[in-house]
Amino acid sequence: MFRRRRDAEDPGSGTRVAPGENDPRTAAAGRARELGTELAGIVAQADRDGARLPPGAVPVVRDIDDVLRPLLRYIEARSAQAEELRNLTAIISDYLPRALGDYLALPARYAERPGLTGSSPADDLLRQLVLLDEGVNELQDLVYTGDAAKLAIQARFLDSKFRRSDLDLD
Fold first, then answer.
1. Where are the domains of the chain?
2. Would you state the pLDDT for residue 168?
3. Region entry Disordered: which residue ranges (predicted)?
4. Smaller CB count within 10 Å for the chain: N or C?
5. DSSP tag of 108
6. pTM of the model
7. CA 153 to CA 156: how far, in whole Å?
8. Roughly how many angstroms between the first and final C-alpha of the chain, as a whole number?
9. Which of 67, 76, 81, 79 is nearest to 135 (CA)?
């Protein structure tokens, strides 16, 4: 679903710049803080509207929050690729609030009534939330796996730089 883009021109590609306004790490940290605030508002709203949401919706929203909140703190401290930030932004600023908002905009009597697809809006919301939960877990794996790979590359570099070889002359 999500893929890490390798692009030297990409501001989040890992290119190092001097700290300051144009530092992608500073921008990523600021964006992660904004997204954390936005996510907290969405979760609080879901908690307040819990009685109007189908059974199981609020726990899935909290599961999404349980993955995203630590991930956002990690990104705030360590930065992220631009594409990872775009995916996080889409999930937090668009997909999750739209799913909840579209459902809550319906009159209560339509929530359990089967629609054109044969499933009810309540079923559709739960399906969307489960897909978002799967997506945030996949995104989390992508972020952490990418950073783990950087660590492995650095270890190989240091090993080749400082380990004596059988070919070295004494």
1. 24-162
2. 59
3. 1-28
4. C
5. G
6. 0.74
7. 5
8. 52
9. 67
